[in-house]
Design goal:
7-stranded mixed beta sheet, alpha/beta, TIM Barrel, single chain
Length: 755
């Protein structure tokens, strides 16, 4: 026994002396997030039908998590009293000591023919080790056996979170437990529970029973139907009432369930905006004392703060989390400008504008939470008007709010809608269930680094971590939530856990294939890799060539393509690497498996046209939020992709009116300009596109008009090319394009193609 204890303490040295096996064998171990150290050795451990389990005292409780192992039963855990009494076989959970040279937040997993040793200093790290062991059970070719190995691992960030909105659609406690199970497997440790918002109040507050008797129940099942039909509520028990809520006992049950797996539940109670449901039940808290008129609490009303502190008192009794989230975003501050009580408070407190009024409200809540030993966290709008030093910011409107907060010395949790909004489309929106907009594929999640380069080096310590946000306007079922969250959550898990220099998209993609098996075994309705082919056309300004890349989400390369406009078959050229085109071409591509085409045929045009590189004069300016490539955008030879935020789509909130200068008279045969429409985020087609030509840049002659034929009521993502063929013999130096913004919304265009 003493001999084994010595071997255990020197485990790293001993294991490293064991011969390594092939790279192929190493590829059999697929862990997400990627561990800091992973070494595969000779031999394996085969789980017996019943496996002995031993643990040091700090790990006796977490040892019970091993009961979820799918390939063995564990004996009742026995306590290990000292290093000298560590058994020589089975699974052993050992408390690390200084001699082990293990960081405080790390675990070490050692597998040899005798069994498994998991070592850590404290339970949280031990839980992470246990989750690695469970992952291996689901992803190994033979889950009942493990190759001999050494894993040593610890997280990059302390805050690793997922957010779930249960206000817009309510989900049963059983699903939330399944969601927690999946979070734990991938080493997330914060569950941000968005409990209250306009579509429904979801937590029992005993002092204010109407919050769950009335404000938790709405007139329509689907959020979209409710939103567009009066936004009204019904009493619990009404035949048409849709919604639900969690009792305080159920909330406590989930908190305990999550804590057992190393996850802290952070509740969010929205204020001062997003409060339609509350104000419908308690209209005296609104600025006008009427339901449905305003979604903001009346900050000038003392009764409002009594209500909020009462609610938070009960919330703190349920949730032991250090953080309490108060929202703090998207308030309609106009309501405060016309509210006599709010204006009176501003005068009394010397507040110069409504931004400072909101800041005043946030600071009141911050002081209240601090007096109860808690910390306030809110969305990045809480920065407006000033912020208490102890509050933490969640940055969601891109990264800028987080950058500003960190540089100002505030702790930050990054949740930017550019990379981590899992309610956005993850594939071509034309092939997907309706979502709120945006486009964040798996690869974009994986590419994210939570520490932007704009944060000063001495301020990066303020970035606590990041989380993925799941807003559920368009997710009426738990299966739909799973579809949107997975596997993107796995990419985020690796972003938050693994060191930046150890992240590798190709390696992650290979490991992910085995985790689809895990998700299948746990009956997760995840998003399946698409068979659709993406045609990427990159114009090289130096060589005046188009570089064509064909991509799919499938691991095997079975893409066939044509460049003559014909439909590809299994006999068409097989794509192997990017290729160049020196002439305009129509590319078509499709994915094949066993000679059968899987999915549709993708088509795109690689243009090499006359306007590339020509000067563009803007008579109307683009919107500053969507400049794309500035003055070069419309003639840079580069088309936009599926999302208006990709840096190639230029946005306008007025008419588009530009002139292209060829510098000399040119024969002109055709002009084409493409626009995007996506009703959800407020992007529409122009009413018409007018083309004018000129020889001197002053006197223009109208050459043609193309009228839009796509309905503004169509909610789907649409692309339309407005194209005009000119009569023979047309020449001009200047080409003017005018697109009318008839809907007073966004126009997005990417390239003007002239031949």
């Amino acid at each position: 026994m003493a001999q084994y204890a010595l071997r255990l303490m020197l485990g790293v040295i001993i294991v490293l002396s064991i011969p390594m096996v092939s790279a192929h064998a190493q590829g059999q171990v697929s862990i997400i997030p990627r561990p800091s150290v992973l070494e595969i050795h000779e031999g394996k451990f085969v789980f017996p039908a019943t496996t002995s389990l031993h643990a040091f005292e700090p790990f006796m409780e977490v040892a019970s998590l091993l009961s979820e192992h799918p390939h063995t039963n564990f004996m009742e855990v026995e306590r290990i009293k000292s290093r000298k009494r560590v058994p020589e076989s089975g699974v052993r959970l050992v408390q690390a000591e200084g001699i082990d040279k293990l960081p405080s937040n790390a675990y070490r997993l050692t597998v040899d023919t005798s069994g498994i040793v998991l070592m850590a200093h404290q339970p949280e790290a031990m839980i992470n080790g246990i989750m690695t062991l469970l992952q291996l059970a689901y992803t190994q070719p033979d889950g009942g056996a493990l190759p001999a190995m050494l894993i040593e691992d610890r997280p990059r960030f302390g805050y690793r979170g997922l957010h779930l909105d249960v206000s817009r659609h309510f989900y049963p406690l059983s699903f939330l437990k399944k969601f927690i199970d999946l979070m734990a497997l991938y080493k997330f440790n914060r569950f941000h529970w968005h409990l209250t918002d306009g579509p429904g109040w979801r937590l029992e507050i005993k002092k204010y029973p109407e919050l769950t008797q009335y404000a938790a129940w709405r007139t329509h099942v689907a959020w979209k139907d409710w939103w567009h039909n009066g936004r009204r509520y019904l009493d619990e028990g009404h035949p048409n009432a849709s919604g639900g809520y969690y009792t305080q006992d159920e909330a406590r049950e989930l908190v305990a369930y999550a804590a057992r797996k190393g996850i802290t539940v952070i509740p969010e109670i929205e204020m001062p905006g997003h409060s339609e449901a509350v104000l419908a039940a308690y209209p005296q808290l609104s600025c006008r004392g009427e339901p449905h008129k305003h979604a903001e609490y009346c900050i000038g009303n003392a009764e409002t703060f009594t209500f909020l502190t009462d609610v938070l008192t009960e919330v703190m009794d349920i949730f032991p989390s250090e953080y309490i989230h108060i929202g703090g975003d998207e308030a309609n501050k106009e309501s405060w400008k016309t509210c006599a009580k709010c204006q009176a408070l501003m005068g009394k407190e010397g507040l110069k504008d409504v931004d400072e009024l909101q800041s005043y409200a946030v600071k009141q809540m911050d002081q209240f939470l601090q007096s109860n030993g808690r910390k306030l966290v809110g969305w990045d709008e809480i920065l407006e008007g000033g912020l208490s030093s102890g509050a933490t910011v969640m940055s969601w409107r891109g990264e800028q709010g987080g950058i500003d907060a960190a540089n100002a010395g505030h702790d930050v949790i990054m949740t930017p809608n550019s990379h981590l909004y899992f309610d956005y489309y993850q594939s071509d929106p034309r092939t997907q269930p309706e979502a709120i907009g945006g486009y964040i594929p798996l690869s974009k999640v994986y590419a994210y680094d939570p520490i932007p380069k704009e944060i000063a080096a001495d301020k990066t310590k303020h970035v606590l971590g990041a989380q993925g946000n799941i807003w559920t306007e368009y997710m009426p079922t738990q299966e739909h939530v799973e579809y949107m969250a997975f596997p993107r959550a796995l990419a985020l898990a690796e972003v938050l856990w693994s060191a930046q220099e150890r992240r590798d998209w190709d390696g992650f993609s290979i490991r992910l294939r085995r985790h689809y098996t895990l998700l299948q075994q746990l009956h997760v309705n995840y998003y399946r890799p698409s068979y659709e082919v993406d045609i990427a056309i990159d114009f090289n300004a130096d060589t005046q060539l188009n570089i064509i890349s064909l991509l799919s989400e499938q691991h095997e390369n079975n893409i066939h393509y044509t460049i003559d406009g014909s439909k590809p078959t299994v006999n068409s050229p097989l794509y192997s690497k990017p290729f160049e085109l020196s002439v305009p071409a129509t590319i078509k591509a499709a994915y094949f498996r066993d000679s059968a085409r899987m999915g549709g045929v993708t088509e795109d045009r690689a243009d090499l046209h006359k306007a590339i590189g020509k000067k563009v004069t803007y008579h109307t300016k683009w919107n500053d939020r969507y400049p794309a490539q500035g003055e070069a955008t419309l003639t840079n030879g580069q088309k936009g992709e599926l999302t208006y935020g990709d840096g190639q789509w230029q946005g306008f909130l007025n008419d588009l009116d530009i002139t292209i200068d060829f510098e000399r008279r040119e024969a002109i045969q055709s002009l084409a300009i493409r626009f995007m429409q996506h009703k959800g985020p407020g992007i529409f087609m122009p009413g018409e596109v007018k083309i004018l030509l000129s020889d001197n840049g002053k006197n223009f002659r109208e050459t043609g008009i193309v009228v839009n034929d796509i309905s503004k009521d169509d909610p789907s993502l649409q692309f339309k090319t407005f194209e005009l063929e000119f009569d023979a013999g047309q020449t001009a130096r200047y080409v003017r394009v005018v697109a009318t913004n008839v809907n007073q919304a966004f126009l997005f265009t990417d390239e003007i193609v002239i031949y």
